[in-house]
Queue: 4 jobs
Job 1
Amino acid sequence: MSTGTPVATRLAFYQGQFVENSAVRLPLTTQALHYGTGVFEGIRAYADPEGGPLAVFRLREHVERLLRSARTLRIELPHDAGELTGIVLDLLDRNGCVGDTYIRPVAYKYALAPGTPFGVRLSGVSSQFSVTTVAMGSYVPQTGLHCKISSYRRVPSASIPSGAKITGAYANNALAVEEAQADGCDDALMLDGDGHLTEASTSNVFVVGRDGRVATPPATGDLLPGITRASVIELLERETGVVVEERPVTVAELAEAGEVFVSGTGVEICPVTAVDHRPVGTGRPGDLTTEVRRLYTEVVRGRRPAYASWLTPVRSA
Ligand SMILES: Cc1ncc(COP(=O)(O)O)c(C=O)c1O
């Protein structure tokens, strides 16, 4: 799905300091490496086409989700929301980021505290936190994704809380993507144990019926209720009057849909033009999808003053 290798910027935030990215040496004993006991965020900062400062999209919401995810895994972050916000903005500034940039904070279990016995655990293990940035524009084919309904079921919330972005849980998504790509598709759509649609590998999914009604699986389901998803729901209602139904969505509805699109920080808003090698609707991006993409692009590029509070400017270098 990726159209190029992102280029890492020079500095990272690691162990409380801004350091050269290439100088970081993480011990092989790092607990999260063994057990998937880390949490992360994916955040985007957008360039202003008119040369203003870079602006981070919904930074507060991402920082709050990182803190919630960390609490789920008993990861003690040495920073509060205000400090985390400052670290992200400072890193972008110090790296001299001027073009579109992807920001990746990770908080993870690090080392057994003295006296903690060897084994899989959360308590008695210290925590670490890092942030890296990469220069990265759009990376999915905006002409449309071909998705495969995965034979891997989405890990249920009852097994790993899906509202938390937990690194280990992404083995599920990686298996699904691998399977989809081996079948000539770009991405996977995953079902829950009851056979209802949950989400794609790194994005939420919206289904537009032939009657024009829009549905997306509920935030209480086995999925990560994305920040982009919430933004799309709000944008659609405020700007077009379309109220998105948050309810279980069946595979039959997907097959019958006039349009399908996915939303996520990484993929942004992207049409799904084929599912299991069959065209969705006309097989081309639909009108509503095109409209959502237009609105979203205008918002992230600072062209919609009503949504200025969704953007946090990075002080210019
Ligand atoms: C599994 C999964 N679902 C949904 C999303 C979309 O979330 P957001 O819009 O907050 O980026 C992501 C990306 O973070 C994801 O990894």
Job 2
Amino acid sequence: MDGNNYDRVALVSGGSRGIGAAVTSALAERGCRVGCTYRTGLEEAEKLAAGHPGQVLPVQFDLSDPATATAAVNRVVDHWGRMDSLILNAGQWAGGRLAETAADSWWRVIDSNLRGTVDLTRAALPYLATSPSPSIVLVSSVVGLIGHAGDTAYAAAKSAMVGFGRSLAKEVARDGIRVNILAPGFVATDMTDAVPLSSRKRIEDATILGRFGTVDEIARAAIFLSEEATFCTGSVLTADGGWAL
Ligand SMILES: NC(=O)c1ccc[n+]([C@@H]2O[C@H](COP(=O)([O-])OP(=O)(O)OC[C@H]3O[C@@H](n4cnc5c(N)ncnc54)[C@H](OP(=O)(O)O)[C@@H]3O)[C@@H](O)[C@H]2O)c1
């Protein structure tokens, strides 16, 4: 599978920016055709498509709108006739200590990270089941594995993705579908741009490799799980520079 990927079709959620954009580009460079979802970033998604003519298809998707999950999957399958890989990367960070966060806002973080991920998976499963080598990768976070003060909602959503993914791996193995989870640590993207300098320094000091990761490093880990790790299912791969050690 890792030699010639020219026939593979992938759907990458949150492909317009950050980690998802790096995954989209790297898959396209390997010869895959990629449905790349955007919520607000149509322009960014179109730029990615222009950089890989005929290989990247921008598709609208909003984690909180189940109709867009079905529409995104159908758009890719209508366009290319199949789906082999699903990379569930779209997500939103929102922090705040439990005692200082209103209940509605707290649950919105769970909903905005988890609901669309599950909806997209549900819509894609019938198509993945007809692929000769299908796979799903869920982009969780090390915060969901070890916890982080000020992140109870985000961590709970990312932790739920681990339980969801491992259970799904058991359900769909009979269809040949591998399901794996990627848990990045701190990565330089728009999401972490808001981290104040003092916290950034603390995070770098606590990361044994001494720095934030790059989107290309995370993309390589995602592609390993998606395309190359043919004996891995239900696995959780951390890519965090040793922050969680
Ligand atoms: N950066 C980190 O340090 C880090 C660490 C661990 C895990 N992660 C996880 O990795 C994934 C990607 O993170 P990132 O840092 O690359 O984020 P990012 O730069 O903020 O990009 C987020 C992507 O998700 C899309 N998105 C955001 N909210 C959405 C929604 N409600 N519905 C649909 N799409 C939505 C965005 O689309 P538009 O721009 O088109 O709106 C964008 O393509 C996330 O799941 C994040 O939780 C990130």
Job 3
Amino acid sequence: MCHFQACIIGARTKRILHVNVKNKYCVVCQRSEHSREHKCFRNWNKTSTSMEAAIISEGFQESIKKYNLIYGRLIGDGDSSVYKRITESAPYGPTFVVEKIECRNHLLRNYLNKIADIGKDTKLPILFRKKVTNSDVLGRFRNAVTKAIQYRTEHATQINNSMHTKAELLRKDIINGPRHIFGDHSNCEDYFCSKSEEVSGLCIIIS
Ligand SMILES: [Zn+2]
Ligand SMILES: [Zn+2]
């Protein structure tokens, strides 16, 4: 990717707080061998993956000056490079830790992309790959996670589980999702399924 755009949006206000674009290439620089004087759009010469992290981190650095605000919590995707960059740059001094909240939509997107990747991996037998390439099955993967998140969130307010326990139980549910989808209900929680759904017929060959 030769240009990258990223922005920070306030979770409550839905207002754009910071936006920037990084360009790796400039049309004029590309076309002319002798660089004539021009308004150059190239403002990035490092790797593309660091562009997003740089833009977001800049926004955090400016937040006090621009809005007199501390961005205390970051709702972000599973990509850890952005959060890592923010922690390293310590925009509010070394003792203030910006908290990270995982976004369910990003989590699901990453999860389903990884499963779709398995479907494209030609090292695996086509018969098995087909099991995860249709949208019905991908939808079931999505539902399993959504259901677990919903239950663990609502249930958590009824019983007095600590945040750590809640996260641990949710983690177990998410890992169990694929087993449930392919018919192994031995580890399914009662809330999760009635354990009588028909087996989808996937044989797992262990060699
Ligand atoms: Zn240029
Ligand atoms: Zn089940």
Job 4
Amino acid sequence: MKFLSDQGNTSAAVIGMGYVGSTVAAVLAGEGVDVVGIDVNPALVAALEQRRCWFSEPGLPELLYSGLDSGRLRVTTDYDLVSGVDVVIIAVSTPVRDTELVDVPLRTACTELAGHLREGQLVILKSTVPPGVSRNLVAPLLEGGGLKVGEDFGLAFCPERLSEGQALHELRTFPIAIGGWCPDSVAAAGAFWRRTIGAEIISCASMESAEMVKLASNWWIDHNIAMANELATLCAVLDVDVLEVISATNTMRKGTGNVNILLPSVGVGGSCLTKDPWMVWRAARDRDVELDTIPVAREVNDSMPGYTVDLIVEELARFGKKLEEAKIAVLGVAFKNNTGDLRATPALPIVTGLQQGGAEVAIFDPLADSGEVKKTFGLAPVETAREALSGADCIAVLARHDEFDDIDFVALRESVAPSCVIIDGRAYYSRETIGRFRRHGFAYRGIGR
Ligand SMILES: NC(=O)c1ccc[n+]([C@@H]2O[C@H](COP(=O)([O-])OP(=O)(O)OC[C@H]3O[C@@H](n4cnc5c(N)ncnc54)[C@H](O)[C@@H]3O)[C@@H](O)[C@H]2O)c1
């Protein structure tokens, strides 16, 4: 094979050891690949060397530490080690500002890499990028070191489609889409993923096609959730449980699968769904194509934190309580369930809205780093759920982590206010659980429930 040797153990460098890079590096090392993880942030590298993982992803710290302990995984800030590996995977951040890609991390990484590439290597871009970036930005920058793409080294775009909370499982099982500079690049990338993760491969006709696979995925998710959120706001006024509607609707076959309406919630956050739709919208606009559904879906999803604050105010008013007199226990401030990631979390505008209305807010989130919570919310989190709930007029579950299974609101009934409302922002409590809350004197409202 032109770009990947058939002999011996495969080795890889992962450029950018953030959330995605750490996951990819840990999984590859777990599969026996010799991996070097390279990041420009010395604090991140030092933390990993001291067996401190910054990302609260189930199973990730253990996998990283076992890779580091076995020597299969090494971490460094030094690009020199790149020349010794077979495959270089780029997973640096690709943020968007005002709909435009901020390409500085990608440019810096590619420029640095160019000086370290050697003949026969394969470069795989995993960072999410607008269509055309692999060909028009990454390839020329990598060629800056004198080697020619397609001749001296291979280049492929393989979008990362994992989501936080189930990243390890998804990385090991999701089919991998590959778009390559040339057939040899596609063949080498396919061989690499089959040999290491054993993944099913989907070959795309071009790098642009593979770039669009990622963008279409997140466009669909954001759009689908916007529909679920609007459905929820309608169900709320019809006194219909949106979850009942969704689960019954989703039994209908359509196309190659079932209708699959996702779940409504207090809003869409995280580093991908809040930016990727804008990336594709901007790519379309630059080519004189207007994508109307993207701004609409973004607007709907961005309106959900305000909707949640209004819901809390409305429920408190039923008990004659004003927001400025209320204590709100906020459980879970991460952008979704079972992650500690606070990036673009919808909990932030909710907490801000509650505080601006004069409420006293107590935050509890066992997965989020307490220093990060303090920095993001300007409020130190409390250490226990009991502390947060003490005297609360409202328990707002904005992200429901598995750790919350142990918190029994009913058992803590005496410590909350006599009239206390549970706001179910993303817990999706069962009918039985809601019935139990109500029997013990709690009011309950969910998004569309
Ligand atoms: N987080 C997710 O759930 C997810 C899922 C799929 C795809 N993605 C995409 O994957 C990419 C990475 O996302 P992430 O969440 O891991 O971001 P992140 O911010 O957690 O990690 C990016 C890392 O790259 C490092 N970096 C920046 N410039 C560098 C350089 N020149 N050389 C080496 N390291 C450099 C940063 O220090 C950081 O540690 C983005 O394009 C994102 O859109 C993310």
